[in-house]
Write a structure and sequence with these properties.
InterPro entries: P-loop_NTPase, Zeta_toxin_domain. The protein is α/β, with parallel strands linked by helices. The protein has one domain: 3-Layer(aba) Sandwich (Rossmann fold), CATH 3.40.50.300. It is built from ten helices and ten strands. The longest helix has 26 residues.
């Protein structure tokens, strides 16, 4: 196997990186956001950062609209501009070589521009904290050190940090990647990203990186709340930081819950969706080999009977959101959105 290509020549200088961030990214990504938090509740509660994290294809794009809708209602009212919405994967499109690489050597577009994109995401996060804005950030956690830095940026700035960790079996996220590409689904085109088939290594790196992120959440105690959520917005674990700094509300660690849910038998709804998706992909001849791989990955997760409860799996509850003036204590499936 030949060595990977040297992509160092694509790295931008600090000066060029800053110029692009100031001249292009800020006007495009922050044009509808106020220069600082103007909510009437600003003095009563700290700004809020929600981090929605899951490997590529896990379903972040489908989860985020529900969070954003709840954000508008709970934090500032439906007439406000709402929170900043940062999507880690979209920043690479601002790299001056991204379009050319997509046209000539698309397999290099992401690795060549990724290092600068990751810097811009951190810069955007710091800009959010400078303005004291609420924020929803989506990340695949392919580089878990970046996730650590992001949590520290928000926590260090006095934010309340709530994390939604998508616990999705690799078979379902690999299937999700294929479906959004071959069926040209909207979630395959976040903002101005072109439709692209995510390489298997990118998926596998993010799948592994998410577990590292979960371990960090267990060890650091920097998050104020963490929910472990399956596809379809079903909550398996919810833990909340107590006054003593320790997490409470669930059995076992966050990392344990993530690993456990990745191995849980599919629910009837998940199984039906997966089989329907495989049937759709059968119409695409060039997807046949990858569909075969996904079929094999699904086998350990499929049973003829629904035995999940017999095996002692935790109960799954639908994801809901905190409401103004309503206590959420003791309800593990509620993403609090700062409502304690």
């Amino acid at each position: 196997m030949p060595p990977p290509p040297d992509l160092s020549s694509y790295r931008l200088s600090p000066e060029d990186s800053q110029q692009i961030f100031t001249a292009e990214i800020l006007p495009a990504e922050f044009h509808n956001l106020p220069p600082q938090h103007v909510s009437s509740t600003a003095s009563a509660s700290p700004p809020l950062a929600i981090l929605a994290v899951g490997q590529t294809g896990a379903g972040k794009t489908r989860l985020s609209p529900a969070i954003l809708s709840a954000f508008h209602l709970v934090r500032d009212g439906a007439s406000s501009p709402g929170p900043a919405h940062l999507i880690a994967d979209t920043y690479k499109t601002y790299h001056p070589e991204y379009t050319r690489l997509m046209l000539s050597t698309p397999q290099l577009a992401s690795p060549a521009t990724g290092p600068d994109a990751r810097k811009w995401l951190a810069m955007a996060s710091r800009e959010v904290t400078r303005r004291k804005l609420d924020v929803l950030l989506e990340s695949a956690c392919r580089h878990p050190d970046d996730f650590v830095d992001l949590v520290r940026i928000f926590s260090g700035a006095g934010y309340r940090v709530e994390v939604v960790l998508l616990a999705v079996p690799a078979a379902l996220s690999r299937l999700g990647i294929l479906v959004r590409y071959y069926e040209r689904l909207p979630e395959g085109q976040s903002r101005n990203l072109p439709v692209r088939l995510t390489p298997g290594k990118v998926h596998d790196d993010s799948y592994a990186g998410l577990l590292d992120a979960a371990r960090f959440l267990d060890e650091s105690g920097l998050a104020d709340q963490v929910l472990v959520v399956r596809r379809g917005n079903q909550v398996a674990l919810g833990v909340v930081k107590q006054q003593d700094g320790k997490m409470a509300g669930g059995s076992g660690s966050i990392a344990d819950a993530l690993e456990r849910e990745r191995e849980r038998l599919l629910t009837k709804e998940e199984m039906k969706t997966a089989l329907d998706d495989i049937q759709k992909l059968g119409m695409h001849e060039d997807a046949r080999e990858q569909v075969g791989v996904v079929r094999a990955m699904l086998q350990p997760l499929i049973s003829g009977d629904d035995k999940s409860e017999q095996r002692g799996w935790p109960e799954l509850r639908p994801l809901t959101f905190g409401k103004v003036g309503e206590e959420s204590g003791g309800t593990y499936n509620v993403l609090r959105l700062g409502q304690l």
